[in-house]
Design a protein that fits this description.
32% of the residues lie in helices and 24% in strands. Helix 3 packs across helix 4. It has a single domain, classed as Rossmann fold. With 120 residues, it is α/β, with parallel strands linked by helices. The longest helix is centred in the C-terminal third of the chain and has 14 residues. It is built from four helices and five strands. The N and C termini lie far apart (40 Å).
């Protein structure tokens, strides 16, 4: 059994999504070049990476290309370079006016990600 399916069984996430006919959420990990753990973030959805170890000539254009599929219910996992996190939030807000943006913020006391909701 994969880690994702065991999390789904524990949280009932898969059942809830089926009942509501929702697409599975995606957790867009901003910048995990330091290889910090994101195990807790998988309970919010499938993981995709925005920025990797590569250097980007234009991080805004790169974020626009990668985050073009960001949809309501997805999360931005705030990890890594704060500048890249700011770029990702700005791109999502620009591409989806009026959408509530869900971000995951790491709580170092509980070692868990906490959802925060932003409205612009």
């Amino acid at each position: 059994m994969s880690y994702n399916s065991s999390i789904n069984e524990i949280t009932g996430k898969e059942k809830m999504q089926d009942e509501l006919n929702l697409e599975p959420a995606v957790v867009w990990v901003i910048d995990n070049t330091q290889r910090k753990t994101i195990k807790d973030a998988v309970r919010f959805g499938e993981v995709e990476h925005v920025f990797t170890d590569m250097q980007y000539i234009d991080p805004v254009e790169h974020a626009r290309e990668i985050l073009k599929d960001f949809q309501e219910g997805d999360y931005l996992c705030m990890i890594g370079n704060p500048l890249l996190s700011a770029v990702a939030v700005a791109v999502v807000a620009q591409n989806n006016p009026g959408m509530e943006i869900r971000v995951l913020q790491f709580d170092s006391r509980t070692f868990q990600y906490v959802p925060v909701y932003l409205n612009f």
